[in-house]
Design brief:
The complex is a heterodimer. Helix content of chain A is 0%, strand content 55%. By secondary structure, chain A is an all-beta fold. Chain A has a 7-stranded mixed sheet, with no helix packed on it. The N and C termini of chain B lie far apart (72 Å).
């Protein structure tokens, strides 16, 4: 299940601001469905933000990050037109990726 | 003799192939390579346990700017922001976000590339009213800021 990511990167003075919205249920594994069966944990465990081929931020997440996670980060530098990429993997082996250019 | 010679060559060739293949596999994975997941801290079920797993007890520091809502109507989606004033707290390499009242307090860890801004926005689940903590690592030391968020509707309900 490869998820798409809505992503925007905007130059703000010396910095670049990246905003990304991922589609993911972020199930904790502690909830039960209507039949009382527990819903298996399913959440994003790793996220990285790349500027060109450089990792500017890398994160490990637990199940406490909200469903359909939002991530905003800022990094120094970046020029209009540069590629910015956000990638994730989840605990079930799923991956997601989104790419944009700085404007 | 000839046979052994042949065997050796093909084994070397095989090894070369393996080496080549593993480089090819390692390349896309490079983004993850730098930091390992702090499993003990993620598995902790109480705040002090989680903090202990991170190392020393963090000291409060005004350079950690932590923004959370005073009241969250929906605990499942609580927007938070962590910034660091680098003029008073430089060299921050990690940001941890912890939620006191959650079954597993550690929610997320962010590794920040050196020489860049420390600015992170995300949304977390908060089970019930309690303190939220932003802990940052700077030169191997831990500093923090905490804020109470009142939750009207819990984040772990069905």
């Amino acid at each position: 299940m490869a998820g798409r990511i809505k992503i925007r990167a905007q130059k703000k003075g010396e910095m670049t601001e990246v905003k990304a919205l991922m589609r993911h249920p972020m199930e904790t594994g502690m909830r039960k469905d209507q039949a009382g069966e527990s819903i298996p944990a399913h959440f994003i465990t790793d996220v990285a933000v790349l500027h060109g081929d450089q990792t500017v931020m890398q994160a490990h997440w637990g199940a406490a990050v909200s469903a359909n996670p939002f991530l905003g980060v800022r990094f120094q530098g970046g020029q209009a037109g540069d590629a910015v990429r956000v990638v994730w993997t989840d605990n079930q082996g799923g991956t997601g990726e989104g790419e944009t250019t700085i404007r | 003799m000839n046979k052994t010679e042949k065997g050796r060559v093909s084994r070397r060739r095989l090894l070369n192939w393996v080496a080549l293949l593993s480089t090819a596999v390692a390349l896309p994975a490079r983004a993850w390579a730098a930091v390992t997941r702090p499993d003990t801290a993620f598995g902790a079920t109480a705040l002090d346990q989680a903090l202990m797993a991170l190392g020393e007890t963090p000291t409060r520091h005004e350079g950690v700017i932590f923004t959370t809502p005073d009241i969250a109507e929906n605990g499942a989606v609580v927007p938070i922001r962590v910034e660091v004033d680098q003029t008073v707290l430089p060299n921050v390499s990690k940001v941890y976000v912890l939620v006191e009242m959650n079954p597993n307090p550690l929610a997320a860890v962010f590794d920040i590339a050196s020489g860049t801004e420390v600015y992170i926005e995300t949304r977390v689940k908060v089970a019930q009213t309690g303190d939220l903590y932003a802990v940052v690592e700077s030169d191997g030391q831990l500093f923090m800021a905490s804020r109470e968020t009142k939750v009207t509707l819990g984040g772990c309900g069905g």
